[in-house]
């Protein structure tokens, strides 16, 4: 029997999924998430994120491959594997006419937790989610951010060792999002492994230590956040130029300079390069800069490059 204490929180090997209509959603996905990690799964719409999460949470049947949760095979020991896992879906899916306390207690009941124990646990998770004062209010009266926190509190009722959140802050404003970040950091700090799917790249960079980028059903890049960002040790700038551009652009060693349009130059340069070299080259070529701006954040640039590379290959 596998030593659960030494096993990764999630191990996926050569996972394939082909739907009945012939769509191949996963094409041999393999990844590992270590216990205690805060892990990001990034990918554009249709990349395979939801299918992967669906298979891991036993909502979607795989075509082939293996999934282990803390060393427990999802097929051979489904019930035991599912007891290790909590899922927070993207859609709000509780009864709006139930009270938060009842939502949490009833959820625990599905997992065989005795009512007395569930009531004590519900008080704990609702307090942690800053919802205890709303425990006996109708759920439909909660704000959007409170409803999201209630989804997380409900998932924590079974004290899962692995918590999976599918786009947990989709469609909420930045204040609610940052409040949820604080909640998730606290849950992770207390020992729960978290896997987060998100299209907010700032969210992944702020919260997660490791990530995988999935595109067209394949993992195109994975590893520590810092290491992957170090691969993209460049910065991009757009320069708005006064007047006409010269026929020949200046050569700036180590940097790439291109024409974006008749009055805009696109520059990529190493982060360590001094911008004064760029302005000196512009000045020597008679190029006058009216304004400049950064192209995108580093993680977004990495994401675009990885998914673009996959298309090209």
Explain this structure to me?
The chain folds into 3 domains: 1-84 and 182-219, 3-Layer(aba) Sandwich (Rossmann fold); 87-159, no CATH class; 232-312, Alpha-Beta Plaits, CATH 3.30.70. The chain is α/β, with parallel strands linked by helices and 313 residues long. Strand 9 and strand 10 (218-224) form a beta hairpin. It contains 10 helices and 14 strands. A 6-stranded mixed β-sheet has the order 6-7-8-3-9-10, sandwiched between helices. A 4-stranded antiparallel β-sheet has the order 2-1-4-5. This is ABC-2 type transport system ATP-binding protein.
Which features characterize this protein?
single chain; 313 residues; alpha/beta; Rossmann fold; Alpha-Beta Plaits; 3 domains; 6-stranded mixed β-sheet; 4-stranded antiparallel β-sheet; 10 helices; 14 strands; 34% helix; 28% strand; elongated
